[in-house]
Amino acid sequence: MLDSHCCAPNCPETPYAPAGTRSICKNHFLNFLTWRRRRGAQMFHTYAGMTMEERDTIAAEWMKTIQTEELPATAPKL
Known about the structure:
mainly alpha
């Protein structure tokens, strides 16, 4: 895990676990596990036997489901 931050969009947290060849923070890791669990029990068995490149594809699918948090816009000066 060479990343210095979570690979999820706009997440400044430190890496916790791998997601393919990249890494994610603890909160996003738990979200990733929940997402995989919802896809069915077979996903856990399949994911364990995948290469890192194949896991990157699954992680990319999951990243599309993440709600990106917009940075708050500064209030206009009156």
